[in-house]
Amino acid sequence: MNDFSKLSRRERQIVDILFARGEATALQIQEALPNAPSTMAIRRMLSILEEKGQLKRRKEGREFVYMPKQARKRAGANAMQHMLDTFFGGSVEEALATHLERPRTKVSDDELKRLSALIQEARKQVK
Description:
This protein has 127 residues and is mainly α. Helix content is 61%, strand content 11%. The chain has helices at 9-21, 26-32, 39-51, 72-88, 92-101, 109-126, and strands at residues 24-25, 55-60, 63-68.
């Protein structure tokens, strides 16, 4: 399963921690969670996430180290597509316009140049 939208809030928090850190033990995850449940509850959620195909683990000494099964970039692309479909009818233009129209959005000159280059490249692919 690669659909993060089907995860519970707590499962999503755990996966987010693992994407941010790359990998972590149950104790490290517990320390990073707000209002964390018991270590046993964390271990059970990690087991469930493994069963759902979201995580993999390796043994290090007496502990298991958990990491996302899906590459961060691929997971980000899937999440972005889900967000585009859900909130913007699949429109990249609508999503970007919404983001850029926010008063607190700051875009650097380098970012604008990169966006411009990406747009030019996309135009070539359409022709």
